[in-house]
Write a structure and sequence with these properties.
The complex is a heterodimer of chains A (about 280) and B (about 375). In chain A, helix 2 packs across helix 7, helix 4 packs across helix 5 and helix 5 packs across helix 6. In chain A, helix 7 links the parallel strand 5 and strand 6. Chain A has ten helices and eight strands. An eight-stranded mixed β-sheet of chain A has the order 2-1-3-4-6-5-8-7, with helices on both faces. Chain A has one domain: Thiamin diphosphate (ThDP)-binding fold, Pyr/PP domains (Rossmann fold, 3-Layer(aba) Sandwich). Chain A is of the alpha/beta class. In chain B, strands 1, 2, 3, 4, 5, 6, 7 and 12 form an eight-stranded mixed β-sheet that branches. Chain B has a five-stranded mixed β-sheet with strand order 9-11-10-13-14, with helices on both faces. In chain B, helix 1 runs parallel beside helix 6 and helix 3 runs parallel beside helix 4. The radius of gyration of chain B is 21 Å and the shape is globular. Chain B starts with a helix and ends in a 6-residue tail after the last helix. The model of chain B has no long low-confidence stretch (mean pLDDT about 95). Classes of the chains: A alpha/beta (about 280), B alpha/beta (about 375). At the A-B interface, strand 2, helix 3 and helix 5 of A face strand 2, helix 3, helix 4 and strand 8 of B.
């Protein structure tokens, strides 16, 4: 067998293979989340020439750098408003935001809720690894209560966002949450999200063994066990019951799929542009 | 119409198709007019959740091919600095209008100043070059907004239009020429084999041809230091190559970019250097000074950035001095001093903002600092 064949991967056409190896650490879940996202892009049958990926800053924010599509690695927290401009300037584009929890929910939190409120026609895949990985493991808006990070050395005094509830309450019309262990469900959800007109949000819980796991004495395999044992799949669960609390158990599933509400682009065209009479 | 309205009309005449805004005095009227006008000409207006988002959307829209802009004032200008830097590094054409009001901070929202001129030059972090224009009247706002779009597209760079509250709110006659008389420029476009295209390989005038989203070039753009493929490279060499390219794109085309106007400068002994609304004060002062027998002239900066330092340097060899007339306590004044190089005195006629500078204040500055031959 030729070496080049042995090293080929079904997703190679979608990857900037000249940029591999990637920066993600051993045991990191972002690669799985990213591959799942690319598989969903293939499965959905959307026109990939007309598809752009936008990322912000952080480990997950490097996603845009590896995809062989029009791809934009923007400023910290600003992937969603950048994507908004991209989409509004050319509504034919499929715009996918692939970024992390710190980027999308803390520094970019304001943009997140407003894009959801507008039902902006973009898909947001949020890799949640419970901390700021790129900078060495600081507390995030998604760090569970009492978890240790470099900036909460004795435990996190605060509580994390329930991201699906935030998205739903803000107006998102597609909301799901999975872990990287649930690759099939996740692929299905991202595929649905890509085909959904309006604001679609998929949270992907992902291990960060080097920063989060190490400081909380969770071995890499144990984190995956937690993802299996401390989660429960409950589609259509009430968004208020989706707290990020491993002690109580974390609910996964597809929670919102509202196809009745018109998307931002649709509403703008209908409301603001002169109509033919 | 007012300067703000003329700005919107200039943008539309230049072919603007996207405006990402956020309300702020005294720039709001630009957004209001664009909100009403853009959807009727096939463009899109969106009021974002803050100025950070507005500028991010402007850069995104430009990447999708729109002639893209925003307009703001001091506090919003500060928030837009982050993604202005992104536009510089991604080489994304866009126009940002700052209708300046007196600062710092919230300052005097309804009163004019020119205190953001150095922020215009250096407001985003890192070393870069920027183009900034400074119109003095509603008519000039109209033309300079078109010029700003054309320069932005030609050089794949953000261009700033630094107007102010007085010009923005002043209602004046504005002549809008027939659309056929207005020349518009669009960015150099990517051509040829898609697998060989490099999004940051310099082309004519050092400007890389641009592929827009959805054309099939699969471009990658990043705010990180990158090579000609757009790929991040964390090295001293790549940093030098990229920043030198970004700076060179402007510095090597000064003959095309720099624009000044002169008034009674031929035999002038004292040169009033001014721009924006203060150039109107300077203009009146030149005539009054001439009536008093003082040989004054004016150099008006159309492009404040890049700064026309060679022109000041040449003037410094034959005149007796400079007075910079501006609504701050010395910003462009410092540049004039630097370019004059100590050869002749360069002084300031300025104040903290909130009202215009009176010709009397400029005349006082002239008489206090220069003993000039009287005709």
């Amino acid at each position: 067998m030729k070496t080049s064949q042995a090293q080929s991967h079904p997703l190679d056409p979608l990857l900037r293979t000249d940029r591999i190896p990637h920066i993600w650490c051993p045991g990191c879940g972002i690669g799985t989340a990213f591959a799942t996202c690319l598989n969903a892009m293939k499965d959905s049958g959307i026109d990939l020439v007309q598809t752009a990926m936008v990322s912000g800053i952080g480990c997950s924010g490097r996603g845009a750098g590896y995809v062989k599509l029009d791809s934009y690695h923007t400023t910290h927290g600003r992937a969603i408003p950048f994507a908004t401009g991209l989409k509004l300037a050319n509504p034919k584009l499929n715009v996918v935001v692939f970024s992390g929890d710190g980027d999308l929910l803390a520094i970019g939190g304001n943009h997140f809720i407003h894009a959801a409120r507008r039902n902006m026609d973009i898909t947001v895949v949020c890799v949640n690894n419970f901390n700021y990985g790129m900078t060495g493991g600081q507390v995030a808006a998604t760090t569970p209560h009492l978890a240790k990070t470099t900036t909460t050395p004795v435990g996190n005094p605060e509580n994390p966002f329930n991201a699906p509830l935030l998205a739903y309450a803000s107006g998102a019309t597609y909301v799901a949450r999975w872990t990287i262990l649930h690759a099939r469900d996740l692929t299905e959800s991202i595929t649905e999200a890509l085909l959904h007109p309006g604001f679609s949000f998929v949270e992907v819980l992902s291990p960060c063994p080097v920063n989060y796991g190490r400081r909380n004495r969770i071995k890499p395999m144990d984190m995956l066990k937690i993802f299996r044992e401390k989660t429960i799949i409950r589609n259509d669960a009430r968004p208020t019951e989706l707290d990020l609390d491993f002690d109580k158990g974390i609910v996964l599933g597809k929670f919102v799929h509202d196809t009745d509400r018109p998307s931002c682009v649709e509403l703008y065209d209908k409301t603001c542009r002169p109509q033919e009479r | 119409m007012t300067g703000d309205e003329a700005c919107a009309e200039g943008a539309l005449a230049a072919g603007c198709t996207f405006f990402g805004g956020y309300p702020i005095t005294p720039a709001t009227e630009i957004a209001e007019r664009m909100a009403a006008r853009l959807p009727r000409v096939g463009g899109t207006f969106i009021q974002m959740e803050d100025e950070i988002a507005a500028m991010a959307a402007v850069v995104g829209a430009s990447c999708a091919g729109a002639r893209s802009m925003s307009a703001t004032s001091g506090p919003g200008f500060s928030l837009m600095m982050e993604n202005l830097g992104l536009a510089v590094v991604m080489e994304t054409p866009c126009v940002l209008v700052n209708v300046q009001r007196a600062g710092p901070s919230t300052g005097l929202p309804t009163m004019g100043a020119q205190g953001d001129m150095m922020q215009a030059r250096w407001g985003s972090h890192g070393h870069y070059e920027i183009i900034a224009l400074a119109p003095s009247s509603a008519q000039e706002v109209f033309y300079q907004t078109i010029l700003a779009f054309n320069l932005a597209e030609k050089y794949r760079t953000p261009v700033l239009v630094m107007t102010d509250e007085v010009v923005g709110h002043l209602s004046e006659r504005v002549v809008i020429p027939d659309a056929r008389e207005i020349q518009t420029v669009y960015r150099p476009r990517a051509k040829g084999r898609k697998d060989r295209y490099k999004p940051f390989e310099p082309g004519e005038r050092g400007v890389p041809p641009m592929a827009i989203a959805g054309e099939g070039f699969a471009v990658h753009m990043t705010g990180l230091t990158h090579d000609e493929r757009g790929y991040p490279v964390m090295s001293v060499e790549c940093q030098e190559q990229m920043v030198t390219h970004l700076v060179g794109k402007i510095r090597n085309n000064l003959d095309d970019i720099l624009m000044t106007e002169s008034y009674r400068l031929e035999d002038a002994e004292v040169v009033l250097v001014s721009y924006g609304v203060s150039a109107r004060t300077a203009l009146a002062t030149v005539d009054e000074a001439r009536e008093r027998g003082i040989k004054a002239g004016m150099l008006k900066l159309v492009t404040v950035w890049p700064f026309p330092e060679d022109e000041i340097r040449r003037l410094a060899q034959r005149v007796k001095g400079f007075v910079t007339v501006e609504l701050n306590l010395g910003q462009i004044h410092l540049e004039v001093q630097r370019a004059a190089g100590g050869r002749v005195p360069a002084v300031l006629a300025g104040h903290c903002g909130g009202t215009l500078i009176s010709p009397d204040q400029v005349l006082d500055a002239i008489e206090q600092h220069f003993s000039l031959s009287r005709a």
